[in-house]
Amino acid sequence: MSAWSVTEPSRASKWVAGLLVVLYTCITLLPLVWIISTSFKSGPDSISYPPKILFQPSLEGYVNLFTTRTRIAAEDFAALPPPETWYDRIVRDQGMVIAGQSRFGERFLNSVIIGFGSTFLSIFLGTLAAYAFSRFKVPLKDDLLFFILSTRMMPPIAVAIPIYLMYRELGLSDTHLGMILLYTAVNISLAVWLLKGFIDEIPREYEEAALIDGYTRFQAFRKVVLPQAATGIASTAIFCLIFAWNEYAFAVLLTSGNAQTAPPFIPTIIGVGGQDWPAVAAGATLFLLPVMIFTILLRKHLLRGITFGAVRK
Amino acid sequence: MTGFLTGLLRLRRGPWEMLASILIALGVVMLMQPFFLWAYTWSFLVTLVGTVMFIVVSHFPE
Amino acid sequence: MPNPLEAAARATPAPLARRVRGLSDRAIAWIFVAPTILLLLAINIFPLIWTVRLSFTNYAANRPNREVEWVGLRNYSRILTDDGIWANMQTTAHFLVWTILLQVVLGFTLAWLINRKFRGNDLLTTLIVLPMMLSPAVVGNFWTFLYQPQIGLVNYAVELVTGIPASSFSMLGPGGLAKWSIIIVDTWMWTPFVMLICLAGLRSIPDYIYEAAEVDRASKWRQFWTITVPMVLPFLMLAVLFRGIENFKMFDMVVLLTGGGPGNETLLASIDLKREAFEKWRTGYSSAYAIILFVTVFGLASIYVKALNKVKER
């Protein structure tokens, strides 16, 4: 690059731009920082005014998130043996005893099972379909692609009514399989569109060379195209996983106990006398943190995927 | 403008898609505007006609 | 696996071999596409057709034994003359217009600033993008905490900056602020999306156009309006349509923030639909409601795809 370039912004303008963007970043991250810090506060600290920026860290929120607690009569409370574990002690400090485990662990596990199950399925089916759309003459190709995209745009509540009725008939409501199939159906449109873009970028010559070498179509697909598309497949998988992880509307309408995921569960966490904010914050933190870490670690693929999905066909 | 009209007459895709898009946009505006109840009442029909038209005319030749 | 077709193909010269395999290409294409199409037919299209059918009846899902009557277009005519639902559409419009406006202004500005390519811009981009990756439901839930009257962080920040006492207003309570509160959260969450699309647009402008303009002694201001804006506009258009569609069917974030309240102040169409369908159990009526929303989204989606093709041609 030459020393003089009209398109290279001046140093001063870079500084100003940088400062403004840093300012925006700080403001936009504040709610996230706040929710993480609230998860380490004690109950009274979390609702003190003015809000406490410095506080004694406590694991109360996390303990409350994973347990259910009860108050017992004062004389019984005094007669209890001293607390045996650190979490026992935290609960006793609030004047309560542990009554049992909460359902958060279960809900979190449901999120993991349904998220990974539907991601695997939508990537598997999506890769096949995307390859076919990218390489073969499929009749009515444009109509099919538009049809696939338009299913993504459907308002969840609009299809929820018959899906609710259909699942009730088939015995799929509140099951893992039902949710996996449903999320696969929603994700597959994104998967096909993104993957078609990635596969379109792989030169056809590679496969043609493989075909001439005596590979069958299927072998060429498996041994030539799949390795080339690996990064594309990986970033598509992350999008599908994030969608299934975050989804709320279907989850709240179609699941109640057995297969409920974490998003409909977290808002229902309540303590004694109103919402237990440190516990809610702890649940939100545990739930959001994996996504944040994923986003930061895989930023290159993710950012490319977002623009790719919206801008390219 | 004359290009647009001859395109319509010859059943070309471009101008017809434009017309369908305008109908859809009009329908959406009618649905959400706060001024006339009659416009709200007929908005759905306008959007529906626009959408069906869009699907049909996207098969016209370029 | 030795199969006769395979063996024949191996023995024939390359062009002919390709034709032999070419015959099965069509079969492979169908085998590859069919599962996807079948799944979508079963879980999207079949329910949709069912919704259309239900929308002409008075069926109620909580009373499956009641005799189902065919009511023709009555559900539609009732919805389309209902003042309450019309008001919900206007609430939706208010939410749509303001979120899109704010996100476009903020998103474009940010993209324009980030495009100065200062040091560390990619790390900042990642950090800015974080909110849009999170679960809207959980986000809505924890913003209710930030919006708590008297103790919330937002009230505190407002008092700190403007001096208005924190106890004198409530972001989610009565007083008309709730419909702005949901706009703030949506903007917080989705500005990064518009920013990324704009950034893709800005980066698609080749340098030589600016260099040519510089040779012609066009001012920076003029370059901005005659090169940057028109070149980014198609991308911006896509972002606007996409956000428009998403927010037209917005449900999760707002339902957890306000649940449609106070009163009906933030009752977006899809939240109202959920109440009709799953709380009042007027299945037939709400199916017609769903179809109205669906056709609107579908219409917007076709414009979106058209715009997409325009951008792709670039």
TrEMBL record, chain A:
<dbReference type="Pfam" id="PF00528">
    <property type="entry name" value="BPD_transp_1"/>
</dbReference>
<keyword id="KW-0813">Transport</keyword>
<feature type="transmembrane region" description="Helical">
    <location>
        <begin position="144"/>
        <end position="165"/>
    </location>
</feature>
<feature type="transmembrane region" description="Helical">
    <location>
        <begin position="177"/>
        <end position="195"/>
    </location>
</feature>
<feature type="transmembrane region" description="Helical">
    <location>
        <begin position="12"/>
        <end position="36"/>
    </location>
</feature>
<feature type="transmembrane region" description="Helical">
    <location>
        <begin position="224"/>
        <end position="245"/>
    </location>
</feature>
<dbReference type="InterPro" id="IPR035906">
    <property type="entry name" value="MetI-like_sf"/>
</dbReference>
<protein>
    <submittedName>
        <fullName>Carbohydrate ABC transporter permease</fullName>
    </submittedName>
</protein>
<feature type="transmembrane region" description="Helical">
    <location>
        <begin position="112"/>
        <end position="132"/>
    </location>
</feature>
<dbReference type="InterPro" id="IPR050901">
    <property type="entry name" value="BP-dep_ABC_trans_perm"/>
</dbReference>
<comment type="similarity">
    <text>Belongs to the binding-protein-dependent transport system permease family.</text>
</comment>
<keyword id="KW-0812">Transmembrane</keyword>
<feature type="transmembrane region" description="Helical">
    <location>
        <begin position="277"/>
        <end position="298"/>
    </location>
</feature>
<keyword id="KW-1133">Transmembrane helix</keyword>
<dbReference type="InterPro" id="IPR000515">
    <property type="entry name" value="MetI-like"/>
</dbReference>
TrEMBL record, chain B:
<feature type="transmembrane region" description="Helical">
    <location>
        <begin position="18"/>
        <end position="36"/>
    </location>
</feature>
<feature type="transmembrane region" description="Helical">
    <location>
        <begin position="42"/>
        <end position="60"/>
    </location>
</feature>
<protein>
    <submittedName>
        <fullName>Uncharacterized protein</fullName>
    </submittedName>
</protein>
<keyword id="KW-0812">Transmembrane</keyword>
<keyword id="KW-1133">Transmembrane helix</keyword>
<keyword id="KW-0472">Membrane</keyword>
TrEMBL record, chain C:
<feature type="transmembrane region" description="Helical">
    <location>
        <begin position="223"/>
        <end position="245"/>
    </location>
</feature>
<dbReference type="InterPro" id="IPR052730">
    <property type="entry name" value="Sugar_ABC_transporter"/>
</dbReference>
<keyword id="KW-0472">Membrane</keyword>
<dbReference type="Pfam" id="PF00528">
    <property type="entry name" value="BPD_transp_1"/>
</dbReference>
<feature type="transmembrane region" description="Helical">
    <location>
        <begin position="126"/>
        <end position="146"/>
    </location>
</feature>
<dbReference type="InterPro" id="IPR000515">
    <property type="entry name" value="MetI-like"/>
</dbReference>
<feature type="transmembrane region" description="Helical">
    <location>
        <begin position="287"/>
        <end position="305"/>
    </location>
</feature>
<feature type="transmembrane region" description="Helical">
    <location>
        <begin position="95"/>
        <end position="114"/>
    </location>
</feature>
<keyword id="KW-0812">Transmembrane</keyword>
<protein>
    <submittedName>
        <fullName>Sugar ABC transporter permease</fullName>
    </submittedName>
</protein>
<keyword id="KW-1133">Transmembrane helix</keyword>
<feature type="domain" description="ABC transmembrane type-1">
    <location>
        <begin position="89"/>
        <end position="304"/>
    </location>
</feature>
<dbReference type="InterPro" id="IPR035277">
    <property type="entry name" value="MalF_N"/>
</dbReference>
<feature type="transmembrane region" description="Helical">
    <location>
        <begin position="180"/>
        <end position="202"/>
    </location>
</feature>
<keyword id="KW-0813">Transport</keyword>
